[in-house]
Predict the structure.
Amino acid sequence: MGRIAENLEELRRRLSGEVTLVAVSKTKSVEDIREAYEAGQRIFGENRAQELAEKAEALPKDIQWHMIGHLQRNKVKYIIPHVSMVHAVDSLRLMAAIDKEAKKIDRTVPILLQFHIAEEESKYGLSLDEAHELLESDRFASFQNVEVAGVMGMATFTEDHERVRREFRVLKRIFATLKQEFFSSQDAFKEISMGMSGDYPIAIEEGSTMVRVGSSIFGERA
Ligand SMILES: *Cc1c(COP(=O)(O)O)cnc(C)c1O
């Protein structure tokens, strides 16, 4: 068994069957992804639009590609035919671009709202107030080709486990609040995407439904 297949097996042992594993393959080769595929992995995460599109063309069609990184509006068109979920949606304008491209090919794209949960400055991610404003807007109500499937967030990169835990708790609370206020009748709103190689065990303890793990599977990135 190759290194990647071994890492995957080890990781699956640690994840409960309830948690979805997104294998983050950004910067990794098609050969590396194929090894993971042959070991049974079907969900892969990429953070650059063009790279996702190229890999999707080159690899088996039953792979589910997740766009996990910040997405520019002018790149949306490259990924829409390929993605099964877009994780980091943090503006109405980006959502509108996804809706428009999805409509063109007559599909509905599941998206996750990205929240700013780290106790440090960041350009990306919504606050709960901003999410309220977005979800209450007429423009949001007009979208027919995006479906909000849950929330996503990244904790601070730190050895301070209590801090990471606090941040994940914030995301869990945001999920519960939005579920109650906006999505109580929508089964599709169910995902809490949190946890990476360095912090997924804490994320799972705090209620993650989807972890995004790269280097623990494929090795460190250059
Ligand atoms: C790169 C990346 C990951 C995976 O990071 P690892 O530390 O390699 O597991 C997860 N989420 C996002 C948004 C990323 O960009």
Observations:
- The beta strands are 20-24, 43-46, 64-67, 83-89, 109-115, 146-153, 191-193, 210-213.
- The longest strand covers residues 146-153.
- The pocket of pyridoxal-5'-phosphate is lined by residues 24, 26, 47, 68-69, 154, 196-198, 212-216 (CB under 6 Å).
